Amino acid sequence: MSLLSIHNVRKQFGALFALDDVSIEFNAGEVVALLGDNGAGKSTLIKVISGTYIPEEGEIILAGEKIEFPTPKAALEAGIQTVFQDLALCDNLSVVANLYLGQELRKSIFPGLSFFDTARMRRRATELLVELAVDLPSVDAMVKDLSGGQRQSVAIAKAVNADCRVIIMDEPTAALGVAQTRKVLALVKELRARGMAIIYVTHNMHDVMEVCDRCVIMKNGRKVGEVATSAISKEELANIIITGEMKTAATAPIQLIA
User: Fold this and answer.
1) Angle between helices 148-161 and 118-131 (to 10 degrees)
2) Strands (E), the chain
3) How many CB atoms lie within 10 A of CB 70?
4) Edge-to-edge order in the sheet of strand 2-13
5) For FRET with 243, which of 7, 35, 127, 190 sits at 20 to 30 Å CA-CA?
6) What's the number of CA atoms in the CB half-sphere (13 Å) around residue 108?
């Protein structure tokens, strides 16, 4: 059963349909690549899923229940986290402070008097990073002193720490070197093994072939097709993204939508 379903969603800005009757299902334990050229509707779709935009039509079903996200906070509370390209980390704070920013653990000695439980947050942060195989010098390290790959890993770990069920990754390896990219992709595989539904927005075909189970291709606000990654080559996939149609046969059935 799909964890997250988008049914017949439309989002309009004036006369422009940024999303036109889009339906997609995302399963637990699966990485789905969301592909398309600039203006295809990818950003609008993830903003609808994350509660930034409210669609004019259509419905969102999460874990079998129809749900609405009037605000981004509602999506967060439902277990949908987004790791944006700019990461949204605080450079002047430590790793542990970023992981618990806005959800700090507290302890109290007297009724009505509480303070941050720093020791417990450090311990849990260390355990989480070990579970995810994230290599950092220390949970006390300042984010501004980390490499690009380490910063990306912290942003992903922050989403996991919030008990998310669905995680949206927007160009997670953009501007990363080869070694840093490998570490981020390994982390994506670990999240898939933990049973999360991962929506992977990227232009990097190597990333797609490496970690994505299924590809959904969009063009001009519509879903034009979807295919198992194992059933198609990078060249064929690029052709669909550019033209919106399949010109060479894949080795396995491909679903294309007119």
Assistant:
1) 110
2) 2-13, 16-27, 30-35, 57-62, 65-67, 80-83, 106-110, 113-116, 166-170, 197-201, 214-219, 222-228, 255-256
3) 9
4) 16-27, 2-13, 57-62, 65-67
5) 7
6) 5
Phi and psi angles of residue 187, each rounded to the nearest 5 degrees, phi first: -65, -40
In 3D space, the residue among 43, 1, 4, 45 whose CA is nearest the CA of residue 22 turns out to be: 45
- Token output for 214: 């299924």
Residue recorded with tokens 């049914």: 7
CA dihedral angle for residue 62, residue 68, residue 70, residue 71, rounded to 10 degrees: 0
Task: Identify the segments of the chain with pLDDT beneath 70.
Answer: 1, 246-258
Interval 86-109: pLDDT, tens: 778 999 999 999 999 988 888 887
The pTM score is 0.88
Which residues have CB under 8 Å from 182's CB, separation 6+? none
Write out the two tokens for 76. Answer: 């967060």
Helix then strand then coil, in percent of the chain rounded to 5, is 35, 30, 35
> What is the signed CA dihedral for 105, 103, 62, 2, rounded to 10 degrees?
-70
195 Cβ neighbours under 8 A, 6+ residues apart: 28, 29
Tell me the torsion sign for CA atoms 59, 62, 66, 69. negative
To the nearest 10°, the Cα dihedral for 68, 69, 73, 76? Answer: 70
Mean of per-residue pLDDT scores for the chain: 90
Domains of the chain, CATH where assigned:
2-256 (3.40.50.300)
